[in-house]
Inverse folding.
């Protein structure tokens, strides 16, 4: 039943516009700030039709599913889209790395150089941390405005970390050079681990809140 619910939700979102914005991070090296905002507002886009918590609850109460399956399905639905966007972002980062290696006289981030990270493993790690933070603090069964507030908090966290990385550790975390690639890889692994851990924390919290609403 959980698999059927996920398939139904994914089918509803598989329109041309959704697929278009899913591929946006593939070219994010040109508009990194916009991509950062988009990836962290993604859950609100996916759940945009449910503006009131009561309507969502009425629908879920009619489904022949276990309580934990409802919560798990909703969180997995959002998390799978987040992972898909991160995969697209990673391909864009790989493209930026290759382009930087072969076209040495081009600055991919000349417009916002010095205040936002390149589309590299460091930024992806920070975005994964922000997504996990969003999944942990938001209530996916709440109203649109409450979810939006959680997204704003996640965006603020990411921009603070981005600013600190650029201002105090740009030698290690900025750019596409091979010298400190291992540092950027560590940031990515830490971010991915934080995403998994925080999403699980969110699942346990959602489970308790959902039970309290019934």
């Amino acid at each position: 039943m959980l698999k059927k619910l996920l398939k139904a939700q994914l089918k509803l979102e598989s329109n041309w516009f959704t697929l278009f914005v899913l591929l946006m991070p593939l070219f994010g090296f040109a508009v990194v700030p916009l991509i950062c905002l988009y990836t962290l507002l993604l859950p609100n886009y996916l759940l945009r039709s449910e503006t009131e918590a009561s309507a969502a609850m009425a629908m879920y109460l009619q489904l022949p599913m276990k309580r934990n399956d409802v919560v798990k399905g909703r969180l997995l639905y959002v998390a799978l889209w987040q992972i898909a966007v991160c995969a697209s972002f990673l391909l864009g980062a790989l493209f930026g790395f290759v382009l930087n290696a072969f076209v040495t006289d081009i600055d991919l981030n000349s417009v916002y150089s010095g205040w936002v990270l390149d589309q590299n493993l460091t930024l992806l790690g920070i975005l994964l941390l922000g997504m996990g933070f969003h999944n942990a603090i938001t209530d996916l069964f709440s109203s649109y405005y409450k979810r939006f507030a959680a997204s704003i908090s996640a965006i603020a966290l990411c921009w603070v970390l981005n600013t600190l990385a650029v201002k105090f550790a740009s030698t290690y975390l900025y750019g596409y050079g091979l010298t400190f690639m291992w540092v950027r890889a560590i940031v990515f692994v830490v971010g991915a681990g934080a995403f998994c851990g925080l999403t699980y924390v969110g699942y346990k919290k959602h489970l308790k809140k959902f039970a309290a609403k019934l």
